[in-house]
Amino acid sequence: MTEIKTKAKIFACSQSQILAEKIAKAYGEDLGKVITSTYSDGEFQPSFEESVRGARLFLIGSTNPGPENLMEMLLMLDAAKRASARHITAVMPYFGWARQDRKDKPRVPIAAKLVAKMLETAGATRIITLDLHADQIQGFFEKPVDHLFASTIFLPYIQQMGLDNLTIASPDMGGSKRAYAYSKALESDVVICYKQRAKANVISHMELIGDVTGKNVILVDDMVDTAGTLTKAADVMMEKGAKSVRAICTHPILSGNAYEKIENSQLEELIVTDSIPLSRESRKITVLSCAELFASVMHNVHHNKSISSKFIM
């Protein structure tokens, strides 16, 4: 009996079109064609303009808010399932709604779990994502999750800087595990920022645990939203005698006046990935592409090869 070879096809949600083109090029496949029809009230309908029957599909799309990004991914998953695709992998460079991963007060949702269930119900048979806000989100899925780390992208960049007296810093207590992993790889010291919030995105107080005198400090975080934490931490560290402060953040959400905060701050450089497209360029922001990482993992997944070499942390 002749074995059926499952073909890999790559499609993009509209918000990740540029990154998806880079991933497809690195993978060695053309990006599949999708047409989206939009009604006057804003409702939209994506349509695959080629057969996907029996294929392995990689649907690339970050689900950063607004809600239409997540909705587009869900609709494309459902369309692929109904078109008889054999395997449907949701490639989510940024997994949105991840900050709501637990009940931190009464009568609030656990949005990250809700999103996980919606993705599975819509038709995802596998998830590939990058630097989840919390590792335990993987447990919200019943399907396989390949959780990649941007350290494979950032560490070579840091090493080629050749900074002396390097210290890795976490902007909050929750990121200490990530900071320690980087410090171990770079054989550097670690400092931790302790912050208190008045409300979401508003810091009322920040203290520094550790010594940064004469150090070149690199703050490590999974995302930068309003940039309030990073810029405040940079100010505190420079006041405490740091030689320079940089930051690496995987996901550049950069909402509100984040760009202005960064450009007017004491941060020397903010290094991010292209998991979310920047709304504008900035002299202080350096973008490193995650396309090669995703293309390599997708290729190994399709050919049932190990991806363990992609996990540094």
Automatic annotation (TrEMBL):
Q: Which UniProt keywords apply?
A: ATP-binding, Kinase, Magnesium, Metal-binding, Nucleotide biosynthesis, Nucleotide-binding, Transferase
CDD domains attached to this UniProt entry: PRTases_typeI
What residues does the Ribose-phosphate pyrophosphokinase N-terminal domain cover? Answer: 9-123
Q: Which GO terms describe its molecular function?
A: ATP binding; kinase activity; magnesium ion binding; ribose phosphate diphosphokinase activity
Q: Which reaction does it catalyse?
A: D-ribose 5-phosphate + ATP = 5-phospho-alpha-D-ribose 1-diphosphate + AMP + H(+)
EC number(s) per entry: 2.7.6.1
Instruction: State the superkingdom.
Output: Bacteria
Q: Which InterPro entries match?
A: PRib_PP_synth_CS, Pribosyltran_N, PRTase-like, PRTase_dom, Rib-P_diPkinase
Q: Which GO terms describe its biological process?
A: 5-phosphoribose 1-diphosphate biosynthetic process; purine nucleotide biosynthetic process; ribonucleoside monophosphate biosynthetic process
Q: Which GO terms describe its cellular component?
A: cytoplasm; ribose phosphate diphosphokinase complex
Q: Report the PANTHER family cross-referenced here.
A: RIBOSE-PHOSPHATE DIPHOSPHOKINASE FAMILY MEMBER (PTHR10210), RIBOSE-PHOSPHATE PYROPHOSPHOKINASE 1, CHLOROPLASTIC (PTHR10210:SF41)
Q: What is this protein called?
A: ribose-phosphate diphosphokinase
Organism the protein comes from? Mangrovimonas yunxiaonensis
Name the lineage.
Bacteria, Pseudomonadati, Bacteroidota, Flavobacteriia, Flavobacteriales
